[in-house]
Amino acid sequence: xxxxxxxxxxxxxxxxxxxxxxxxxxxxxxxxxxxxxxxxxxxxxxxxxxxxxxxxxxxxxxxxxxxxxxxxxxxxxxxxxxxxxxxxxxxxxxxxxxxxxxxxxxxxxxxxxxxxxxxxxxxxxxxxxxxxxxxxxxxxxxxxxxxxxxxxxxxxxxxxxxxxxxxxxxxxxxxxxxxxxxxxxxxxxxxx
Length: 192
What we know:
Elements: E1 5-9, H1 17-29, E2 32-38, E3 42-47, E4 53-59, H2 66-74, E5 78-83, E6 86-92, H3 108-148, H4 152-191
Antiparallel strand pairs: 1-3, 2-3, 4-6, 5-6
Helix pairs in contact: 3-4
């Protein structure tokens, strides 16, 4: 039975949802169907027949009502998982007549709203936590380590946390700006 299940550890940031969708599709093509996720890094799969299945993610920071889920179901999308606000949908590629049917958002304006929602409900709160909690604590550790000279381990830990946070903010910020630009340009082309 162990060969019929696998768990993969994979890190995707909030700005890497498109890469996550591609990776999940490739896993399904290789005969591994996603059944659940724990935290944002543990992916649990079961063995299945290899098939081209499109995976799409939506981000909601609240529970969605039945009509929201029914809308996806009406368009043939199977809802099967949620993880920290991310909703996971899938649909066999064979059931789609066009590239437009591969999308859960009907237009680029909806994609822009989706990105703005992620920024408002994930990025901004994390930045606030960073500037109000982590940064002052790090400065406090620096100040204490200069005086006492004994908090080197604490200084190293907080410095590593700061570097990780900064890297993630820069990575996510750049990626979100790139996605916004992509969707805005596509939106402008459609209007013209």
